[in-house]
UniProtKB/TrEMBL annotation:
This is adenylate cyclase. GO terms for cellular component: plasma membrane. Residues 300-427, 843-1025 form the Guanylate cyclase domain. Belongs to the adenylyl cyclase class-4/guanylyl cyclase family. It is a multi-pass membrane protein. It is found in: Membrane. Keywords: ATP-binding, cAMP biosynthesis, Lyase, Magnesium, Membrane, Metal-binding, Nucleotide-binding, Transmembrane, Transmembrane helix.
Length: 1103
């Protein structure tokens, strides 16, 4: 039966832990140079650790020799040679202990490493030869395993291949010494099979130690490169996120001042965090609504209005008009930034701003007046350049105001107050080319240098100015003061490009600084001396010392259990390499046991077979996925169910800490089961008798009678090494296991097989063999512990850094989200994205739309004082809430709020689909009204409505939105009527005007990006509102015809005077007392029913 193909191989996670892939990736991202520099720092730290360890081991060795040897005269030369060797090794490696002093040339690193190894090896072998010739004392080599560990783990050799060459050379030297010197000149015969077997065991041991060292170097490079790339990736993401957030923040603060935007951002962040913690709990959008309004008691307000703007709208195209406004407003914005004046907004041809708003300024009155003169100068330059008949009126007044934002959508910074109205009236009653200012403003000028003339007659007769006793003056434009140089847009572009170059260089500098902060070890020598000898270190050092307890000193465990748990439960994608090394070590141990038990003891064979079979199965499981990847990486291959099952088993082992610990403990137990067989095969009493008789009768005993102690010690050293190097096993567990292994073996040496060990080769004259064995085990354990401690510390610090950065990125992401949400709540999403990605704020951005519906809705009988602002904020927020139901195909875009006027449009979305045919979970009124309109169309027109009528559907949608606003206002009226404190405050009615047609939308000016629309439809909608009646929706004749196509009644109002257009016919949309549309087909059906009833009645009467 054929096995079906069912899955594909996913090796994307594992390949990130492949050495070749990581090397290629480092070169791709351009961090190979920084990686090499970090390797130098890492090597320097390893050299420091080695020098301290080597000094400690030398002292321990010499002390033991001096305290345990009977004839000290024989070992003084040993102590002297060891001391001299340690001094020479320290002198040679000392330059490499400091990364700043580390030799830059590669051959110098190799030379110092080779010299250190030569000193250690020569000292060891020369002492052996010396004692053999001078004292006729045969001693074994002591530094072979220790030297090999040193080569691979501590010496500053940057690459693996030179380390392998040096390590193999040392192994060849020791093996040659074993063969050529001891074996041939003393008691062994090379032709003896047993001696050849022991030679092969020595070679296999040297091979395993070199393999262990190479494995450590490869694993260290993989881990370091992976950590390095992780840090590069996270730093780049952090830089990008901070840069984007900073860009958005600057962009946001150019629209809303920080004191207004920050409380709103904080509220948005709290809502985001609340939604993350309570995913299944709906968020109450209306809870704790923020009213972001502040009072500013001492400011100056400037209003400016372009004269003959209405004439320009009739003589210029919309595009030409927008280009002209952009040039003017860009000039105004640049001048405002120079004179520290805050532009609020512009309303068509009206531009108003405030000085002393964002920060207190005692010269705010002077700044406003100078800015007004600058505006007059700018518009005259444009008038001469474009040859247009335009001018500007400017009104300036000083006083107090309320500033902030109203509503919950498309927030815009605005100002309110009686002094704001005074400034507006001053502009309206002023003269072109003059600044019309109040007496209060002039009194705030310390050194007046303006030509002052009496105010206009129109201002003296203005009721509002008379009510507030405002005396006015005119300041004509003569010569604009040029104390500050001009700054044009081209110069700003150059500054922007220079800023971008500085930003790129700062990113590279920050990356290098972050790489320098990467840890190289638990504690440096310099810091160690500071802790011991200095209690008055710098604050930074004290902070770093106090920060260290985050990780345990000896077992390097996180003190935060959650962090330790997450660290330990990381998947192990290097498990296959650990299993390969474990398999080789197991094979080596089985071979040693085979050589020892030449008679093939049954128990030994069974143990060996079980161990190797189980290790082979685990090796196959962990390597099968990689072998399949190597075989089919270039092909689109599907695998059988068996292969898929093997993949899942391997992935399960990689992800499960419990399973990995189980494999780890099984491997260690398997090794010791082999050693146990060797120990059980040894008869101690028989060995003692035979050994004594061989000494008495001078014959060579059977060497296979019992285990060879040094072979067993070397085996235990390898097992300790395997216990400590196994990847992704908790460091605490590895330390405990390896320590127990060493203690158990030393107990065996001293208490169970003391006679056999005592009569084995020693390393120094009169130095008891069991001490030599224990010293080698202790040196191996401590060397590998400190090596692994360095690696584990770096891994944990990198992990903690990564977790902290991820938390910072999450917090930054929430902050970024709050800024993005706020920006999208100020500008349409596509406009905000354009300005955040590709467009500078001083460039013109516009869009053309063939059919857009525009609405103005104004509240009447509503005074803009502080109590009423709170009420207005609630009403506008309710209006904005209605916007959320007009998304997708029913997109209604809020444009702005002007005083008590709410402006919106439908049809501005770039994604806008004119066809409204899909049923969605949307506001009920929209669905009902659209369905009723469709039925009306089907009654009035039997054929399908044309594409032009599809475009006109935006008019109907916006009219439905306007009706929803009237319903909402009616609800607010009822709510506030029941509140006694607000009964006298809230007595507002609303008129609405709607028009439609071609519209241009975009952003003009050089700062405070504000999305606006222009065109005849905008002007007509404004006029329909201003000439309309409360409680009615007034539309133009063209708009009425479109609405009638959707079945809505549009009642002829009459001929209405419209400023700039003359007398035009206008219409009211049919609305009943329940705020429902009146439909034509319903009226006709009602009339037809009445006629039918009357005809039926008359026929009955005639009958």
């Amino acid at each position: 039966m054929n096995v079906k193909m069912k899955c594909k191989l996913d090796y994307s996670k594992e390949i990130r832990w492949e050495r070749n892939f990581l090397k290629k990736k480092c070169k791709e991202v351009g961090v190979e140079k920084e990686f090499t520099a970090y390797q130098m720092r890492l090597s320097a730290n390893y050299v420091v650790v080695f020098l301290l360890l080597h000094l400690a081991f030398t002292i321990l060795h010499c002390v033991m020799l001096l305290t345990t040897c009977e004839d000290r005269d024989k070992i003084y030369i040993d102590v002297g040679c060891y001391t001299l060797s340690t001094v020479l090794v320290t002198l040679v490696l000392w330059p490499s202990a400091n990364p700043k002093c580390m030799p830059r040339l590669r051959y110098k690193k190799y030379l110092t490493s080779v010299l250190a190894v030569v000193f250690m090896v020569v000292t060891d072998l020369l002492l052996n030869i010396y004692h053999y010739h001078m004292d006729d004392w045969i001693i074994g080599s002591f530094f072979d395993t220790y030297t090999l560990f040193t080569i691979y783990m501590f010496l500053p050799i940057p690459y693996i291949l030179p380390s392998l060459v040096l390590g193999i050379s040392v192994s060849v030297i020791y093996t040659s010494y074993f063969v050529l010197y001891l074996a041939s000149k003393h008691r062994y015969e090379i032709s003896n099979v047993a001696h050849l077997n022991y030679l092969s065991v020595e070679i296999s041991h040297q091979f395993c130690v070199n393999l262990y060292g190479a494995f450590f170097r490869i694993m260290r490079e993989i881990i370091v490169r992976s950590s390095f790339l992780d840090r590069h990736q996270y730093v780049m993401e952090d830089i990008w996120l901070r840069s984007a957030r900073e860009q958005e923040k600057v962009f946001l603060h150019s629209i809303l001042p920080p004191q207004i935007s920050q409380p709103i951002q904080e509220d948005i962040r709290n809502r985001i965090k609340f939604s993350e913690k309570h995913r299944n709990t709906p968020i109450n959008i209306r809870r704790d609504r923020i009213m972001a309004i502040q009072i500013h008691p001492d400011v100056s307000i400037l209003y400016a209005d372009i004269v003959n703007y209405t004439y320009l709208t009739t003589t210029l195209t919309v595009k030409q008009l927008i280009s002209l406004l952009h040039e003017l407003y860009a000039r105004f914005d640049l001048a405002a930034s120079r004179y520290t004046v805050q532009r609020i907004k512009f309303l068509g041809d009206c531009y108003y701003c405030v000085a002393g708003l964002t920060r207190p300024d005692p010269d705010h009155a002077k700044c406003c007046l100078d800015f007004g003169l600058c505006m007059i100068d700018n518009i005259r330059e444009v008038r001469a350049k474009e040859k247009l008949d335009i001018d500007i009126r400017v009104g300036v007044h000083s006083g107090a105001l309320c500033a902030g934002v109203l509503g919950a959508a498309k927030l815009q910074y605005d100002i309110w107050g009686s002094d704001v109205v005074i400034a507006n009236r001053l502009e309206g009653t002023g003269l072109p080319g003059h600044i019309h200012t109040s007496e209060r403003t002039l009194q705030m000028i310390i050194e007046p240098r303006y030509e002052v003339q009496p105010g206009t007659e129109k201002a003296r007769n203005d009721p509002f100015l008379q009510k507030h006793n405002v005396i006015t003056y005119l300041i004509p434009f003569n010569v604009r003061p040029r104390t500050i140089p001009d700054l044009d847009i081209d110069h700003i572009k150059i500054i922007d490009s220079e800023t971008e170059l500085k930003k790129q260089s700062s990113i590279g500098l920050e990356l290098r600084e972050e790489f320098k902060k990467m840890p190289v070890g638990p504690i440096s020598v310099k810091e160690n001396f500071k802790e011991v000898f200095q209690l008055w270190g710098k604050d930074k050092d004290k902070e770093r010392i106090r920060a260290r307890p985050v990780i345990g000193i000896y077992l390097l465990h996180f003190r935060d259990p959650r962090l330790e748990y997450n660290y330990m439960h990381q998947p192990d994608y290097m498990l296959k390499y650990s299993m390969l090394l474990a398999w080789v070590f197991g094979l080596n141990l089985c071979y040693i046991q085979y050589v020892h038990d030449s008679g093939l003891v049954k128990n030994g064979v069974i143990v060996d077979l079980v161990v190797m079979l189980s290790l082979t199965v685990l090796l196959f499981l962990t390597w099968y996925k990689k072998l399949c990847f190597l075989r089919y990486s270039t092909q689109d291959h599907k695998y059988s169910r068996i292969s898929c099952c093997l993949f899942r088993v391997a992935e399960s082992i990689q992800r499960s800490l419990i399973k990995r610990i189980g494999i780890y403990m099984y491997t260690i137990i398997s090794y010791f089961s082999i050693i146990t067989v060797m120990l059980m095969d040894c008869d101690r009493e028989e060995y003692e008798v035979v050994h004594i008789e061989s000494k008495l009768y001078h014959y060579e005993p059977d060497m296979n009678m019992c285990f060879h102690p040094w072979l067993l010690t070397n085996m235990v050293c390898l097992i300790i090494g395997m216990s400590l190097i196994f990847t992704r096993i908790p460091f605490m567990m590895k330390v405990v296991v390896s320590t127990l292994e060493a203690i158990t073996y030393m107990i065996i040496l001293f208490f169970q097989f003391e006679y056999i060990v005592h009569h084995s080769l020693t390393t120094n004259p009169y130095f008891e063999a069991e001490y030599a064995h224990c010293l080698l085990v202790i040196i191996t354990l401590l060397s590998l512990y400190f090596k692994e401690r360095q690696t584990e510390f770096n891994n944990k610090i990198n992990y903690k850094w990564r977790e902290e950065l991820l938390k910072k990125q999450h917090d930054a992401f929430i902050a970024d989200q709050s800024i993005t949400i706020l920006l999208h709540n100020i500008l349409p999403a596509h406009v905000a994205n354009v300005y955040l990605t590709s467009l500078a704020k001083h460039e013109l951005y516009y869009e053309d739309y063939a059919m857009v519906a525009v609405m103005f809705a104004s509240l009447h009988n509503f005074q803009l004082d502080l109590p009423n602002l709170r009420v207005l904020n609630e009403i506008i927020s309710e209006f904005d809430r209605i916007l959320s139901y007009y998304r997708d195909d029913y997109l209604v875009e809020k444009i702005k709020i002007v005083g008590c006027t709410y402006m919106a449009a439908c049809g501005l979305d770039l994604r806008f689909s004119s066809v409204i045919s899909q049923e969605r979970s949307t506001h009920e009124s929209v669905i009902q009204e659209v369905l009723r309109a469709r039925r009306s169309i089907s009654v009035l027109r039997k054929d399908n409505y044309a594409s032009s009528e599809k475009k006109e559907e935006v008019v109907f949608v916006l009219t439905t939105f306007a009706l929803d606003l009237m319903r909402t206002l009616w609800t607010c009226n009822n709510d506030y009527r029941n509140v006694p404190v607000d009964r006298d405050v809230f007595t507002a009615d609303m008129s609405i005007g709607i028009s439609s047609g071609e519209v241009m939308a975009g952003v003009v000016g050089a700062s405070q990006v504000h999305y606006d629309i222009w065109g005849n439809a905008v002007n007509m909608a404004s006029r329909m509102d201003s000439t309309g009646l409360a409680g009615q929706i007034q539309v133009t004749e063209e708009t009425a015809e479109m609405l009638r196509k959707y079945g809505l009644e549009c009642n002829y109002r009459g001929m209405t005077f419209v400023k700039g257009r003359g007398i035009l016919p206008t219409y009211f949309v049919g609305i009943d007392e329940n705020y429902e549309f009146k439909y034509i087909y319903e009226s006709r059906h009602h009339n037809l029913s009445d006629n039918s009833d009357s005809q039926h009645g008359s026929s009955e009467k005639n009958a």
